[in-house]
Design a protein that fits this description.
- By secondary structure, this protein is α/β, with parallel strands linked by helices.
- 25% of the residues lie in helices and 16% in strands.
- The chain is built from 10 helices and 14 strands.
- The chain has a 10-stranded mixed beta sheet with strand order 3-2-1-4-5-7-6-13-14-12, sandwiched between helices. A 4-stranded antiparallel beta sheet has the order 9-8-10-11, covered by helices on one side.
- A hairpin with a 4-residue loop joins strand 13 and strand 14.
- Helix 1 packs across helix 8 and helix 9 packs antiparallel against helix 10.
- The radius of gyration is 21 Å and the shape is globular.
- About 3% of the residues have low confidence.
């Protein structure tokens, strides 16, 4: 299919769709540093700088992908919802679809949009799609289910004018998958910038990659290794955590000391998830909805749902579509990674002791032991 990518970032959707056989003809992205990456990696694709000013979608477009800005919807953001300045630009998507309806639309955003203001942003996006004549399916998907060592839960929405979006997004499922619990025998990823209200502890994987701190300082996750060292992954490893080839953002290696590489990778769509969706667009599965029930009025948004023109229904699809070997930090050369700075680690330990969060036995003690010789 022919793809137009809006809010394209560094091309996670587009690379995944390319790997599953589709062709991108347009990428729209206002961030100049993301644009540098696009020009470097998608040289034959038309790049438009601002989706808000985009006059129309290319006539040949069959699929629109859109990872619209999430800063106002994120747990780590201002929580202003779609009224926030960042996320309001989603209106451009609906304007373009109204002027030129396309057969398929694929959206991605943060898990927190299901809960912010009781799911108001989710309800708004789906209502706009329904008004334009689209059927839709939605699902929370964890990137760990695709072999990536990153706990990254994101909401994906597939909408169609005539096809069945359930056969794309909901047909594959491996329910009952259990992720390993945190213990010190495996690498433990955590947010070193937090400590009081959150920590993101994840076994043999990193917590969700973030764009950076509130003042723009790159904040890759920290990792406590079984050896007792506390390290941070280099940018090339973090690119792989999202499914990109290493050095995908190397076009920015001399731009402002490369800080924006971290931000853009943290904002990106996980490539293997996009590849899976692209593959199912090409060869749909077969979803069984016989046990699904209607969403009760006033109920929280479910992790998976669909609407084929009548009632909105709850799906039991899990967050793990495929049966893949889980991604493991221990498969990386973690002992070659640089140490987290003493100042950063000291700040995390102090905040952890000041807060009320619970930590596994021996975790904080291991960090304090590392501080004695770092």
């Amino acid at each position: 299919m022919v793809v137009s990518g809006l809010y394209a970032g560094i091309g996670g959707f587009e690379l995944g769709f390319q790997r599953s056989g589709h062709q991108t003809v347009l990428m729209s992205e206002i961030d100049p540093d993301a644009g540098r990456v696009i020009r470097d990696r998608f040289a034959d694709v038309v790049l438009d700088a601002d989706v808000v000013k985009l006059a129309a979608l290319p006539e040949e477009t069959e699929v629109v992908t859109a990872g619209f800005p999430c800063q106002d919807l994120s747990m780590a953001g201002k929580k202003e919802g779609l009224e926030g300045k960042k996320s309001q630009v989603v209106e451009a998507l609906f304007r373009l679809l109204k002027d030129r309806p396309v057969p398929w639309v694929v959206l991605e955003n943060v898990y927190f949009m299901l809960h912010l203001a009781r799911g108001a942003a989710m309800a708004y996006v789906l209502s706009r799609l329904e008004t334009l004549g689209y059927h839709w399916a939605s699902r929370v998907v964890d990137s760990r289910a695709f072999g990536l060592p990153q706990r990254r839960r994101r909401v994906y929405i597939v909408a169609a004018l005539t096809g069945d979006p359930r056969d794309v997004l909901l047909a594959d499922d491996t329910p009952g998958k259990v992720w390993p619990t945190v213990d010190l025998d495996r690498p433990v990823g955590f947010f070193w910038t937090e400590g009081r209200s959150g920590h993101g502890l994840t076994s043999d994987a990193v917590p969700p990659l973030k764009t950076g701190s509130g003042v723009g300082i790159p904040s890759p996750p920290a990792v406590l290794l079984p050896s007792g060292r506390v390290v941070t992954p280099p940018i090339e490893a973090v690119e792989r955590f999202q499914g990109f080839p290493p050095r995908w953002t190397s076009a920015l290696r001399t731009v402002r000391h490369g800080r924006d590489r971290w931000r853009l990778v943290g904002n990106a769509v996980s490539v293997p998830v996009a590849e899976w969706i692209g593959g199912r667009l090409e060869t749909p599965g077969s979803y069984d909805s016989s046990n699904d029930i209607a969403i009760a009025e006033g109920a929280p948004w479910p992790r998976a749902a669909w609407c084929m023109g009548a009632e909105r229904m709850v799906s039991n699809a899990s967050e793990q579509p495929l049966e893949k070997r889980r991604g493991r930090l221990s498969a990386f050369g973690t002992e070659q990674w640089p140490d987290l700075s003493r100042r950063a680690l000291t700040g995390f330990v102090r905040r952890a002791h000041e807060g009320n969060l619970r930590y596994p036995n021996g975790f904080l003690e291991a960090l304090e032991a590392h501080l004695k010789w770092v």
